[in-house]
Fold:
Amino acid sequence: MTKLVVTGGRELSGEVRISAAKNAVLPIIAAALAGRTPSVIEEVPRLVDVLTLADVLRQLGVGAEFAGDNLVIDPQKITSCEAPYEHVRRMRASFLVMGPLLAREGWARIALPGGCAIGSRPIDLHLKGFEALGAEIIHGHGFIEARARNGLHGANIYLDFPSVGATENIIMAAVLADGHTVLENPAQEPEIIDLANFLNNMGAKVRGAGTDTIRIEGVGVLKGVNYTVIPDRVEAGTYMVAVAMAGGEVRLTNVLPEHMKPVTAKLREVGVTVAEDIDNVLVKSDRRLLAVDIKTLPYPGFPTDMQAQFMAMLSVASGVSSVQETVFENRFMHVDELRKFGASILVEGRVAKVFGVNRLAGARVKATDLRAGAAMVLAGMVADGETEVDYVHHIDRGYDRLVEKLCRIGGQIRRTGG
Ligand code: UD1
Structure:
């Protein structure tokens, strides 16, 4: 089985280029389905999640091939509107094809989604949105079908919770609906703005993405476009934490500092120096880290996708930190793994108290989900001796060449067993 072997104790220095955001690339690939002509998504990292979605598209009869680093999506001949279980179980975001399929073809049947095991992760908000737009929803055995025989029509939709996926799916369905849609309390993540920009380049009329009200005027047809996706703020945040923990000085390029604000603010509180430029950040740390309190929230709050990495860092900070997870109900699986390094963490419901210790000891641990996997690598980089990280497939879902990038700035990590 593939493992990562991490040797702790190396300071980091140099430069890392951040890749395109996984969480923006995925909905944008799905949105390209809604076009009548091919789209070219530029500099797409070959993440397992991206390859999985490309498989789903091919299953629908849609071309999805790399040309160098660009992903070319040719949706001219959709031959199927069904995404089968063997694809969807590998990645929950496969469900994002439902909105564009419904909009363009009038129906879609998607197996029930899988993905990271972090809570029950329902899809009720996606479905309520489709129903409001006039779709009939059928719950089958292991699949969901949506039909809009007479097309979709604009509607007023209020989301009970600003779900990222539901916001994206509803936008993708509404862009081709007949009339005006108002989506209130949508997610405001930068990835939502990027999706809206992509759709608007295709000819859609989406206004207000990134605010608490999104207005969509349906259009008759969308065309394919060339598009460059925003940088990955979670990948950038992960490297920022790596520098904070390991010490040293690293410049991250292809970063939008504006998107990093919630993470940067907390890192400064921890004692890390972060200097921002237009599209890069310089991170410096002397490894003297202070405890802080964190509460995950929808954007612009502190991102749940950085919670595990921060917990690894706070395990070696001076003092007691509190980490509260409010977005997902079961996102503390990394706690047991961090304890194997000697971290001192007490969980009560959705709050983890982290009692900083002076040293971590190398351990054999598992990547329990994507971001938790990154947290294991980070802990291993400062632990005494060697750490073995198992279940690496979780990390490969969402980090572009993690080992190569960390080694280039001085980390000592190798992949074994395949
Ligand atoms: C996206 C991101 C993921 C990130 C998450 C929260 C992608 C591909 N993934 O996931 O990395 O951790 O946003 O920032 O972009 N919920 C419902 N009903 C629904 C949908 C969601 O109750 O219909 C709940 C979920 O159970 C969860 C919360 O809303 O507790 C947030 O989920 P959501 O924002 O939808 O996350 P994803 O889009 O799945």
Summary: Residues 308 and 372 are 5 Å apart (CA to CA). The radius of gyration is 21 Å. Confidence is low (pLDDT under 50) at residues 115-119.
